[in-house]
Amino acid sequence: MQTLLLDPDAVEEAAEMSAVVSAVEDAFVADARGDTQMPAKSYVDLPQYNGDFRSMPAYLDAGEWDAAAVKWVNVHPDNPEDHDLPTVMGTVVYSDPETAFPLALLDGTTITRKRTGAAAAVATNHLAVENARTMGIVGAGVQSYTQLEAIATVRPIEAVVVADRDQERVDEFVEAFGDRFEVRGGTIEEAAQCDVLSTVTPVEEPIVDSVGDHTHVNAVGADAAGKHEIDDKILLDSLLVIDDYEQCTHSGEINVPWSEGVLSDEDIHGELGEVIVGEKPGRTPETGVSVFDSTGLAIQDVAASHVVYEYAADRDVGERVSLVDTDVL
């Protein structure tokens, strides 16, 4: 047996977005039913290099398929200036649960982008108004592209408003999607009035102060303690859905108001998996604003990697290598 090596181009080709969205939804369902194993994310802190490593292992049984993987990812803020390398890089080891054979080594950075967009799409599908046609995006970095690509698979998005302090980023985003959507740059306030809003910034002070009466918000940017994009009043007045209680209260959008006692467990409607399987209601005609706090889960990496591996194996994408010795003595 051989292991597939899948670089960013191969992962991009194999990660067909609608399939990733479907697999990520399967992962949330499996988690809600207790058919996953997802140990807490572990950290290797490296203050001497102003960085850290993070290990994210998981297994899930989706019924028709099961899969296991671990993502090894770093955060080194000095990399771009000091080493001409990205701040964040990731590698996924995707393994056969039955034999433990490493089926694939994948570019984890692309996997992360794809599964994060897919998670927002799953939440949007259950929490946004059915006829959502406008989308706002705050932050025009790499993740903004995947947010639009994914959410457009579950709602008939026609018009997009993107807000970013960097006009060059806005121009690049408009150019990338101008042939598919009516897309323009705008203010945060304009973006926040859309039917769906995704926020993908690293800020520590809220920058979204108001939203439309029925806007669904995907709060994606907060991934560490202290980060906070959405005004507390919006969170308190919304139908608030999270991806995972432990991660969100520690490092998600709700971490600051929750730690300060502004927001309590009673203000959290439930986890997304509970909504998908019907344990908690999603959007109803009476729902106003909804918010999804997305921190990113290892089961999402497993789900996206499953899609990529199956596509690549079927279509001979990537390079096959003899990574481990399979001789039985």
Automatic annotation (TrEMBL):
Transmembrane segments: none annotated. InterPro entries: AlaDH_arch-typ, NAD(P)-bd_dom_sf, ODC_Mu_crystall, ODC_N. Its EC number is 1.4.1.1. GO terms for biological process: alanine metabolic process. GO terms for molecular function: alanine dehydrogenase activity; NAD binding. This is Alanine dehydrogenase. The gene is ala. HAMAP family: AlaDH_arch. It catalyses: L-alanine + NAD(+) + H2O = pyruvate + NH4(+) + NADH + H(+). The active site is at K71. NAD(+) binds at R115, V142, Q143, G221, A222, D223, K227, S294. Catalyzes the NAD(+)-dependent oxidative deamination of L-alanine to pyruvate, and the reverse reaction, the reductive amination of pyruvate. It holds the Pfam family OCD_Mu_crystall. PANTHER family: KETIMINE REDUCTASE MU-CRYSTALLIN. It comes from the Archaea. One of its GO terms (cellular component) is cytoplasm. Keywords: NAD, Nucleotide-binding, Oxidoreductase. Belongs to the ornithine cyclodeaminase/mu-crystallin family. Archaeal alanine dehydrogenase subfamily. It is an enzyme of class 1 (oxidoreductase).
